[in-house]
Design a protein that fits this description.
single chain; mainly alpha; elongated; DUF6814; membrane; transmembrane helix; transmembrane
């Protein structure tokens, strides 16, 4: 089970930057498809909010993956007295 946690940790560390890259590419693509200035302004605002929300989620995913890969979750507490 610990090997699975470490493997998934590597996947999560890679998935964080890939997800942000995909979102950024989608944002550039959608803003480029907007025809009028008002539509382009609304699209930029929408994608700015989306990127602002998902950046900390992506960073958290990478940090979680790093700790899983490092082995911090190998020994989990079984009761509240071990915390």
């Amino acid at each position: 089970m610990n090997a699975l946690k470490k493997f998934l940790g590597l996947i999560w560390m890679v998935l964080g930057p890939l997800a942000m890259t995909f979102l950024f590419i989608q944002a550039v693509d959608k803003v480029g498809l907007a025809h009028t200035d008002i539509e382009r302004t609304n699209t930029i605002l929408q994608w700015g909010i989306i990127l602002f929300i998902f950046l900390p989620i992506s960073l958290g995913l990478m940090i979680f993956g790093f700790y899983a890969w490092k082995g911090e979750y190998d020994k989990l507490p079984e009761s509240s007295e071990e915390i």
